[in-house]
Amino acid sequence: MSLTLVKISARFTHAQGSIQVQNADALMQEITQLLEDDKKSNNLGKNANQYFKSQQGALSALIKQVKRYI
Fold first, then answer.
1. Following CA atoms 54, 57, 59, 63 in sequence, which dihedral angle do they give, to the nearest 10 degrees?
2. In whole angstroms, what is the distance from residue 67 CA to residue 4 CA?
3. pTM, full prediction
4. What are phi and psi for residue 23, nearest 5 degrees?
5. Per residue of the chain (70 residues), what is the pLDDT tens digit?
6. CB of 40 closer than 8 Å to CB of 29
7. DSSP-derived secondary structure for 23-41
8. Which residue of 20, 22, 58, 66 is 20 to 30 Å from 7, comparing CA positions?
9. Residue 65 to residues 1, 52, 54: CA-CA distances in angstroms?
């Protein structure tokens, strides 16, 4: 299965491990909130880490599948 950057980004956002913004003003607002709200920034980091860890075996599985055809 091929994952594009857009799909990966959407999955991180769905897992509440990232925040999507539409413009520079919204980005600054989110950064400010994360810097001021320890709970929000900690939750975001924990969720991102959990999602990342859940995907760690994906590359190995893909390599195994490709090796069958080489």
1. -160
2. 22
3. 0.72
4. -160, 175
5. 456 778 888 999 999 999 999 999 999 999 999 999 999 999 999 999 999 888 888 777 777 877 888 8
6. no
7. SHHHHHHHHHHHHH-HHHH
8. 66
9. 10, 21, 19
